[in-house]
């Protein structure tokens, strides 16, 4: 039943939108914590070294844009709604979106050890564990997109204008995740261990 499929796709699109909204809130929480930690209390010597991956600011901007694009698309969902083009553009080689995730994954271990050593003494445990949880969300975000898009694809017929776009996006994300699987694994293990 095509109506069932479309309804199912719309629901998954709404779930994706909701998860993006929560994700953007999480990212902005990290920036808030970052602002408090870089306040006058933190010793001068540690200011030069960054406790936070440099790519964070850029990622926040990208995800705010993505949230707006998804909102516009999903809240006025036509009968044959399309999502693939948004993620196609995002994962395109001309766009640095995935590169910034790689940079994030590469910077994170050092940031975690700095936080562990330096901030440990000056900040209550709670903030630290919140931070690790928020960092963890970022590590998991790309794999989450893969799951969302695979779900949409499951309910997309081959004749649907979104089918091929989604197929390419899913393929790109799979390749990306498997290419950097060690980096993902190492960061996940590190954060689980610290928590």
Automatic annotation (TrEMBL):
Pfam families: RhoGEF (PF00621). GO terms for molecular function: guanyl-nucleotide exchange factor activity. Residues 8-183 form the DH domain. InterPro entries: ARHGEF33, DBL_dom_sf, DH_dom. SMART domains: RhoGEF. This is Rho guanine nucleotide exchange factor 33. It comes from Mesitornis unicolor (brown roatelo). The lineage of its organism: Eukaryota, Metazoa, Chordata, Craniata, Vertebrata.
């Amino acid at each position: 039943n095509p109506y069932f499929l479309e309804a199912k796709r719309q629901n998954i699109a709404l779930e994706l939108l909701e998860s993006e909204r929560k994700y953007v809130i999480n990212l902005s929480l990290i920036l808030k914590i970052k602002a408090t930690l870089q306040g006058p209390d933190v010793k001068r010597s540690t200011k030069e070294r960054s406790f936070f991956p440099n790519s964070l600011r850029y990622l926040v901007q990208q995800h705010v844009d993505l949230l707006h694009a998804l909102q516009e698309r999903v809240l006025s969902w036509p009968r044959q709604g399309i999502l693939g083009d948004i993620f196609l553009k995002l994962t395109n080689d001309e766009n640095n979106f995935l590169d910034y995730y790689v940079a994030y994954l590469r910077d994170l271990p050092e940031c975690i050890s700095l936080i562990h050593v330096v901030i440990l003494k000056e900040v209550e445990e709670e903030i630290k564990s919140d931070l690790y949880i928020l960092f963890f969300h970022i590590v998991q975000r790309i794999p989450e997109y893969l799951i969302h898009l695979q779900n949409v694809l499951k309910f997309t017929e081959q004749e649907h204008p979104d089918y091929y776009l989604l197929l390419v996006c899913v393929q790109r994300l799979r390749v990306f995740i498997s290419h950097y699987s060690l980096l993902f694994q190492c960061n996940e293990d590190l954060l689980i261990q610290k928590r």
